[in-house]
Design a protein that fits this description.
With 195 residues, the chain is α/β, with parallel strands linked by helices. The protein is 23% helix and 38% strand.
């Protein structure tokens, strides 16, 4: 939300939220925008997109929120289309490293001059069964080291200004198949602005 300050002087902006879920980020973004702005929200699950529609009506931003059900890897991002592109905890769920790079390139190419991309991606994910202490397979399709993901992001966004780069170790308890699991990860926030 802090990055929205880059657009305060604009009458309308185009935003893309890849992996929007039920609108945790896109609804607060839409609430800060003026009528005429557009927030395109992409998520794989129909049920999630339907909830997003309901919440956008509940929070009176349905005229700005434009839901799209589909895979973020297949979503067509036109060149220089968006002022602000957000991808929070979604890129690690594409099917391969090649697809990850493809989506990042599409994001880069789809950003207008002076536009911003904000990426939050998990790396080095570990899951441990809290009852047995046994390490489990992490449920992330793309799980690479923090160094590798930062190298990839910096290569793709060469020439852009780094606004915020913050790798942050996190751990928290989740439930998998009715069992308590400790999830450990390094969450990388990578925000860049196109010169």
């Amino acid at each position: 939300m802090n990055l929205m300050s880059y657009f305060e002087d604009k009458d309308s902006i185009n935003v893309l939220d890849l992996g929007c879920g039920v609108g945790r980020n896109s609804i607060p973004i839409a609430q800060k925008l003026k009528v005429g702005s557009n927030v395109v929200c992409v998520d794989l699950l129909d049920t999630t997109v339907e909830k997003l529609r309901q919440y956008s009506e509940e929070f009176n931003v349905e005229q700005i929120i434009n839901p799209y059900q589909g895979d973020i890897a297949d979503f067509d991002i036109l060149p220089n289309e968006y002022d602000y592109i957000v991808a929070v905890s979604s890129l690690e769920h594409v099917d391969s490293r090649d697809t990850l790079e493809k989506v990042l390139l599409n994001m880069r190419n789809g950003t207008k001059p002076n536009g911003v991309n904000c990426i939050i991606v998990n790396s080095e994910v570990e899951e441990v069964d809290l009852e047995t202490g046994v390490k489990m397979d992490a449920l992330m399709e793309v799980d690479i080291s923090t160094e590798e993901i930062l190298d990839t992001l910096r290569r793709i966004y060469t020439g852009w200004k780094e606004v915020l780069v913050l790798p942050k170790p996190l751990e928290y308890q989740i439930t998998r198949q009715d069992k308590p699991v400790l999830l450990k990860t390094t969450a990388i926030t990578f925000a860049v602005r196109k010169n």
